[in-house]
Amino acid sequence: MATHEVQAVRDAGMWQVFIDGFLVTEVSRWPSVGFVAREWVSLTEEVPSSEVELSIRVVGRNQYIDA
Question: What residue ranges in the chain does DSSP mark as E strands?
Fold first, then answer.
């Protein structure tokens, strides 16, 4: 199973959540970043969320990392 790269960018009071380089959603609270990312990957890959591995990195605004 692959580890997914999650990037979190703080912008205008919200956390933008990128998974493998694609913006998937915005959340208002930091603890929601990992939860939302894990659930998103679980749904798109059809695997239990407990089997999803994430690597979460906070990046600065306009400093997105290409996956």
Answer: 3-11, 14-19, 22-27, 53-58
